[in-house]
Amino acid sequence: MLHVLIHMDHYEGAATSEVIARMLNTNPVVVRRTMAGLRDAGYLRSEKGHNGGWILARPLSEITMRDVYVALGEPPLIALGLAQDDPRCVIEQAVNDRLRTSLEEAERRILEQFSAITLDQIAGEFKTRLGECQD
């Protein structure tokens, strides 16, 4: 979605779910469901009718990576999970306690960094890289 939002900042007019779906190689229904969370959070608005679609409701400078993460329902950041084989096993309990603490700290740090990065900063990096490619 970060990719899509930055593209939308350069898109003239509304971007349809079909256009975005092609960008992401997915189904427009998936796009509409995903974009709904961003709309509900106030980052997008949807226009109906001819020439309708999705439009940024706020500038990229007012949207952080954490904002997008929260609007998308806070999906798991880390795929590594706790063991659930035998909750009575004291070794499993000890491993899970240590792992849980480490994972919680890692997630806290990631979200802290996400809060400090706005989408316009990412867009700026894109423009710099594009300029380097054209030189």
TrEMBL record:
A Gene Ontology molecular function term of the record: DNA-binding transcription factor activity
Domain of life where this protein originates: Bacteria
GO CC, one annotated term: cytosol
Pfam families for the chain: Rrf2
InterPro entries registered for this protein in UniProt: Tscrpt_reg_Rrf2, WH-like_DNA-bd_sf, WH_DNA-bd_sf
Protein name (database record): Rrf2 family transcriptional regulator
